[in-house]
């Protein structure tokens, strides 16, 4: 199996756009893609003749490279389109761009400042639209995160996962939904004023209720770290938030992942970060460079999950 038939032609703007079975199947397919890769089968000519437009309003390393390489290895091609290179920069409505691109390409992947832009793209384009990061979610990252956790720790249902920092973070939102959907336990450790989006938290709690998982928001970082199998953090100041830097660093410093905090986790915990990391802010050098850090495996898995997504929505 090199695709998931139920996902053909589908948009993926949120982890919530997937059923539990579809999420599991995407992770299983990602493992298959990785197995083929390490067995020397890097190229699968399954997207021959397919082209995907990559619209990026924000800078990127892992997302852009993993998506372009994934399409190349599947036999497809990509068009990287900086927002400044499109007529969007001169005020063309998103709905017009969507209806033009659908006549040229087979799919659209967009990395945007506002999630509303993705929703409008998906509403007007008749081809699949995938969220490559918005201010609300980052589903492609969550797929790689869950794959990494399962790869290294096996049964996600038996694990305690702790996220530290901004609970409104797009990565935190998608990770919380995915873990809850699969029956895991996740603690979001964040200060007042940084709680997850209410609707996303409500959805995560509903998924956890169905799957036997557990989702909670806690103020005390030690409580979240105690006995944790997975320690996760993300940058405190995302693109577009630079004018809030001083306040955010002050508010979140208590939630820095450092050697003292991780001493409360299990001795074999794994440290995760979606990167890029700001050493000395959300994480210290000693943690990210420790033997417990799996950030490079996590980054690699962005490639294998991207291939699973493209094969499923485009074949």
Features:
single chain; 315 residues; Rossmann fold; 5-stranded parallel beta sheet; 4-stranded parallel beta sheet; 12 helices
User: Which strand order spans the largest sheet, edge to edge or round the barrel?
Assistant: 7-6-5-8-9
Beta strand %: 5-15%
Sketch the major β-sheet.
5 strands, parallel
Give the overall shape, derived from the CA principal axes.
globular
Q: Helix count, per DSSP?
A: 12
Radius of gyration: 19 Å
> Architecture of the largest domain, CATH level 2?
3-Layer(aba) Sandwich
Alpha-beta classification: alpha/beta
Which CATH C-level class of the largest domain is it? Alpha Beta
Along the chain, the helix and strand elements come as: HEHEHEHEHEHEHEHEHHEHH
CATH T-level fold name of the largest domain:
Rossmann fold
CATH superfamily of the largest domain: Aspartate/ornithine carbamoyltransferase
What's the average pLDDT? 96
Account of the protein in words:
The structure is a single chain. The chain is an alpha/beta fold and 315 residues long. It folds into two domains: 146 residues, Aspartate/ornithine carbamoyltransferase (Rossmann fold); 159 residues, Rossmann fold, CATH 3.40.50. It contains twelve helices and nine strands. The strands form two sheets. A five-stranded parallel β-sheet has the order 7-6-5-8-9. Strands 2-1-3-4 form a four-stranded parallel β-sheet, sandwiched between helices. β3, α4 and β4 form a beta-alpha-beta unit. The mean pLDDT is 96.
